[in-house]
Write a structure and sequence with these properties.
Length: 304
């Protein structure tokens, strides 16, 4: 009976009906993750001032993996069970490798404001991915709002690029898909293991690839040790790649993937503010208007 009681008790807390104190705690953690992520694009733009794109992507992952691995060793955390390796591989491919690589390549030619609006579809993409992954069947209103949000972003990117999608837009849309898969799988894993271990093990699993790749990139790409370059590298490595994902996954485990993804409504607008303050970027009214339009569409999907 004790085993059965324990099993039935865990489900409602983590998945369907979190208690008020858990919901408040989880919402706070997820909001901290969103705040960290909103600085990712401006920090990446800073990092590209001193490092090549491949150097920035690989070194950030190595630094984050060293911090995560050190924490796992210090706390004597046992390696993950074999049944969780598939999920960790999805997190690694989507969040550790795919999203940073694709967005960094995009930001070589795209402004952070433009990228922020496109990636504003991430909560919507995550919600759809979560629905498909868990077998839930959203309502027709959900899908209509999802399509409307996608159309708004496609129209924005087409207008901004003169009627045709650019290579940078292609990278950003691909980044949406791989990151949504990583978020969804990480949120599910965080119900079974601490959120920091989810991203920690994903980073460590990638180390055999990222470490030699970083050495190779440093030998081929020129780099300059500028203040902006170092600050940007440190933030995307420690703030975005590790600490941000630690609190984000823990928040998703506490309040669920759909509720947590709703908090990302504010991320594109926050990034627009950071791009203006830190990078001095100027953008047309289309950027915030499209961000707000996507915000409305995502709000509809959440209410559905």
């Amino acid at each position: 009976m004790k085993i059965q009681s324990s099993a039935t008790e865990a489900g409602p807390i983590a998945v369907t009906a979190p208690r008020p104190e858990h919901r408040t705690f989880g919402t706070t953690l997820a909001a901290l993750g969103v705040a960290a992520f909103s600085l990712t694009f401006p920090a990446t733009a800073w990092g590209l001032e001193g490092f090549g794109p491949w150097t920035l992507v690989t070194v950030r992952s190595v630094l984050a993996a060293l911090v995560a691995g050190g924490a796992l060793l210090a706390l004597k955390v046992r390696p993950p069970e074999r049944r969780r390796l598939r999920g960790l591989a999805v997190v690694a491919l989507g969040v550790v490798l795919g999203f940073p690589t694709l967005t960094t390549l995009a930001l070589r030619t795209s402004t952070t404001a433009h990228a922020a609006v496109v990636v504003g579809l991430l909560p919507l993409t995550t919600a759809v991915c979560s629905a498909l992954r868990t077998g839930h069947r959203p309502s027709r209103r959900f899908w209509l709002a999802a399509v409307a949000g996608a159309v708004a972003v496609l129209a924005f990117t087409a207008v901004q690029s003169g009627g045709a999608l650019t290579a940078a837009d292609g990278c950003l849309f691909a980044a949406l898909l791989v990151c949504a898969a990583g978020y969804t799988e990480g949120g599910l894993l965080a119900r079974e293991m601490p959120g920091w271990q989810v991203i920690g093990w994903a980073l460590v699993l990638c180390l055999p690839l990222t470490l030699p790749a970083a050495a190779l990139a440093l030998s081929y790409e020129p780099y300059r040790m500028t203040a902006h370059g170092i600050a940007g590298l440190l933030w995307v490595a420690l703030g975005s790649q590790f600490l941000g994902l630690v609190v984000w996954y823990r928040g998703m485990a506490a309040i669920g993937v759909p509720r947590a993804s709703q908090l990302q409504l504010a991320q594109p607008l926050l990034t627009l503010v950071w791009s203006a303050l830190l990078l001095g970027e100027h953008f047309t009214a289309a950027a915030p208007l499209t961000a707000v339009a996507v915000l409305v569409c995502i709000a509809v999907t959440q209410r559905s």
